[in-house]
């Protein structure tokens, strides 16, 4: 009878099992398995295996343990990579420890590693949330200098940060110029700014942005669109409200009845009956 070969776990097997334990929150069991791998089976871990533990501890609010793992790596001849430092930075940022995240970022550069888009975006996001927009903008400029391409997520983070500080003009400039520079912006990019403009009562800028969105094939969020229409009506801006409504309807948007009635009532009060009839025609067509 032929005996089957016994299969022993290798580095990939151990790493996969550790990852599963970390994902389940069983961090100490993952560490025990790591120690078994090294001591019993004498398998040397690589940076990817270490990253399973670094990411596991960072995501579970135990970033100090994650930092010790990187120190352990250095002592045992395994050089940390960009992913290890990015996971550590993410852990610090989640705990609001921005200075330590920045120190990890600078240490990564000091030892010759080139931060990637994820690393930059993680730190930029934390600066934005802390209200440190100048530092965030400096990092964005550094990305450009280092030829590290910022993606849609990066720009949305920056745009949101600018809006939170009321720097709407800068946010709008980015929306206008970035697509011309080959940067892809998504629906969220525009919605972020539009939501803030409506919230702050910047109706003129909101109408301008809405027109830009529609011209580029993006439709704003249903609730935001209705809020803008109502605010324009309440401010007595008949022409702007009518233009916005017709533009939205052409893109397939169906406003709430309250938005229609507000605008029709406002137009009638200003004795502009032709636009009122045109709006009613649109409403009838949409209901058919």
TrEMBL record:
User: NCBIfam families, alphabetically?
Assistant: PPR
PPR repeat ranges, renumbered to this chain: 10-44, 46-80, 81-115, 116-150, 151-185, 186-220
Keywords from the UniProt entry: Repeat
Q: Taxonomic classification, please?
A: Eukaryota, Viridiplantae, Streptophyta, Embryophyta, Tracheophyta
> Where does the UniProt annotation place the signal sequence?
none
Family statement: Belongs to the PPR family. P subfamily.
Q: Which PROSITE patterns match?
A: PPR
Tell me the protein's name.
Answer: Pentacotripeptide-repeat region of PRORP domain-containing protein
Keyword Repeat tagged: yes
Q: Which domain of life is it from?
A: Eukaryota
């Amino acid at each position: 009878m032929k005996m089957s070969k016994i299969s022993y776990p290798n580095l990939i097997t151990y790493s996969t099992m550790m990852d599963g334990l970390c994902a389940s929150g069983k961090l100490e069991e993952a560490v025990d398995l790591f120690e078994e791998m090294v001591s019993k089976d004498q398998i040397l871990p690589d940076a990817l295996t270490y990253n399973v533990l670094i990411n596991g501890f960072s995501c579970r609010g135990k970033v100090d343990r994650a930092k010790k793992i990187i120190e352990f790596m250095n002592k045992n001849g395994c050089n940390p990579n960009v992913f290890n430092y990015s996971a550590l930075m993410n852990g610090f940022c989640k705990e609001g420890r921005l200075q330590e995240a920045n120190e990890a970022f600078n240490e990564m550069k000091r030892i010759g590693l080139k931060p990637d888009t994820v690393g930059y975006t993680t730190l930029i996001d934390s600066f934005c949330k802390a209200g440190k927009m100048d530092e965030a903008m400096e990092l964005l400029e550094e990305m450009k200098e280092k030829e590290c391409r910022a993606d849609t997520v990066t720009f949305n983070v920056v745009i949101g940060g600018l809006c939170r500080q009321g720097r709407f003009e800068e946010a709008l400039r980015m929306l206008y110029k970035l697509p011309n520079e080959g940067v892809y912006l998504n629906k969220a990019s525009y919605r972020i700014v539009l939501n803030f403009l409506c919230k702050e009562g910047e109706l003129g800028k909101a109408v301008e942005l809405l027109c830009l969105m529609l011209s580029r094939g993006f439709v704003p969020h249903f609730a935001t669109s209705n809020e803008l229409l109502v605010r324009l009506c309440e401010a007595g801006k008949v022409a702007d409200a009518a233009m916005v409504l017709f533009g939205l309807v052409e893109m397939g948007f169906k406003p709430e009845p309250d938005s229609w009635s507000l605008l029709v009532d406002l137009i009638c009060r200003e004795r502009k009956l032709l636009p009122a009839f045109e709006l009613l025609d649109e409403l009838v067509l949409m209901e058919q």
